[in-house]
């Protein structure tokens, strides 16, 4: 297992394995106030969370600015921050009233793909300024699969140079796709993989291709999207809930309902099981959860500290709802 999060694990708290995901701090889906963002970060800190993830993409820099404000004055050695590169934030050629990429922010800025060394270095410098930090613990190539073939390799080469000069402590890829990750693991170019929507109670397609080689190579995996972007976030699946940012189909709803039934029979609610499941794999070092209020922080800390009986996993496997056998 990678020692990447060793500093977090040394904190006197049982919550080291969950992190605050910064998408909602960038007004993803709906807007929150600066005051709500500050209160969310403060509550996360009070409840022992010391890992914070963000990206320039989240609200065209808003998430990083808010996170920087929320962490200002904290001892730098007491927390871990991850951010990302690949999308430069530039003036929009055709400004709009609002951003058109899922964040409720003004549309006077735009994203520009750039994985070159100069682009990645510029992105890092701008992130450090927004965050008010001298270095970033973990810097990830963001969604290279959405850009062009080879973007991941180009970005990692750029990050390796920045890691060498100390402004970045660890590097990796943040992605929704498993394609090509095994090659990067074998090449030894990754410290961390942030894997979205590919390892959860509903989706296990990353086990053989990513998690097993990552565990063998000592690459840390941060699981995100463990609530399926909505479907697993409620004790009972809700009609109209989303799975991977789209409306869940009938099969997914039925499967989630069957999982919820077994969870209830074992005294555990569905979101608690969804949070616990990825952390059973030895490659998964942490789970990052988007949170937009102190109440959501409290809910997720309660879930993270709930004991899940081993019999639940056996029952889900016996029902064919998750893979059986021992955890890899």
Automatic annotation (TrEMBL):
<dbReference type="GO" id="GO:0016491">
    <property type="term" value="F:oxidoreductase activity"/>
</dbReference>
<dbReference type="Pfam" id="PF00248">
    <property type="entry name" value="Aldo_ket_red"/>
</dbReference>
<dbReference type="InterPro" id="IPR036812">
    <property type="entry name" value="NAD(P)_OxRdtase_dom_sf"/>
</dbReference>
<dbReference type="InterPro" id="IPR020471">
    <property type="entry name" value="AKR"/>
</dbReference>
<dbReference type="InterPro" id="IPR044477">
    <property type="entry name" value="FDH-like"/>
</dbReference>
<dbReference type="InterPro" id="IPR023210">
    <property type="entry name" value="NADP_OxRdtase_dom"/>
</dbReference>
<feature type="domain" description="NADP-dependent oxidoreductase">
    <location>
        <begin position="18"/>
        <end position="308"/>
    </location>
</feature>
<protein>
    <submittedName>
        <fullName>D-threo-aldose 1-dehydrogenase</fullName>
    </submittedName>
</protein>
<dbReference type="GO" id="GO:0005829">
    <property type="term" value="C:cytosol"/>
</dbReference>
């Amino acid at each position: 297992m990678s020692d990447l999060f060793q500093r977090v694990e040394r904190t006197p708290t049982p919550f080291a394995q969950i992190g605050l995901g910064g998408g909602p701090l960038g007004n993803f889906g709906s807007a929150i106030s600066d005051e709500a963002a500050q209160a969310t970060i403060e509550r996360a800190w009070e409840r022992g969370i010391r890992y914070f993830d963000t990206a320039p993409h989240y609200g065209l820099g808003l998430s990083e600015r808010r996170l920087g404000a929320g962490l200002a004055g904290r001892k730098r050695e007491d927390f871990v921050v991850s951010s990302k590169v690949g999308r430069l934030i530039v003036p929009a050629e055709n400004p709009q009233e609002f951003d058109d990429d899922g964040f409720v922010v003004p549309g006077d800025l735009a994203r520009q793909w750039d994985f070159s060394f100069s682009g990645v270095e510029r992105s890092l410098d701008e992130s450090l300024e927004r965050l008010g930090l001298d270095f970033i613990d973990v810097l990830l190539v963001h969604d290279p699969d959405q850009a062009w073939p080879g973007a991941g390799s180009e970005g990692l080469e750029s990050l390796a140079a920045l890691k060498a000069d100390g402004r970045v402590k660890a590097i990796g890829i943040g992605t929704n796709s498993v394609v090509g990750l095994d090659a990067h693991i074998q090449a030894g170019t990754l410290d961390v993989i942030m894997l979205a929507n590919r390892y959860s109670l509903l989706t296990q397609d990353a086990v053989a291709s990513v998690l097993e080689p990552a565990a063998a190579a000592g690459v840390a995996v941060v699981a995100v999207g463990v609530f399926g972007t909505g479907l697993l976030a409620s004790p009972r699946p809700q009609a109209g809930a989303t799975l991977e940012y789209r409306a869940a189909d009938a099969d997914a709803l039925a499967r989630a309902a069957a999982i919820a039934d077994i969870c209830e029979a074992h005294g555990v609610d569905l979101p608690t099981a969804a949070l616990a499941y990825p952390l059973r794999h030895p490659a998964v070092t942490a789970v990052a959860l988007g949170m937009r209020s102190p109440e959501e922080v409290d809910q997720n800390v309660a879930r993270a500290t709930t004991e899940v009986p081993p019999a639940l996993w056996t029952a889900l496997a016996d029902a064919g709802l998750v893979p059986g056998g021992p955890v890899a």
